[in-house]
Amino acid sequence: MKDQQRKKQRVVERNNQDYISKLPYSLLCNILSSLKINEAVKTSVLSSNWRYIFTNPTNLIFDAQNMLVKDYPFPNICHLSKVLMFNIKMKRASTFVSNVNKYLSNVKNVQKIDKLKVCFTFRNKGYGCNDLEEWIRFAVERNVEEIDLCLLEDNHLSAPNPNDGSFYVFPCDTFDFNSTLKCLRLAHCVLAPLNSCNYGFSTLATLELFKVDLKSEEHIRILLSSCDNLESLSFSECYNMDYLKLEHSFCKKLKYLKVNLCRQLKGIMLKSYILETLEYVGSKVAFFFDAPNLKSFFGYVSENWLVCKLSTDLPQLENLLLECCCMGDVMTKRFPTFENLRHLEIIKVGIFRQDLSWIPVALNACPTITKLKLHLRTYFNIDEELTAYWPPRCLHKHLKEITITGIRGHSSEIAIAIYLLRNAISLEKMIVDPHPRIYLGNGKCVHSEVCENWSRIEKHKVEFFLKKEVGSLVELLIL
Question: HSE on the CB side for 297, CA within 13 Å?
Answer without folding.
Answer: 26
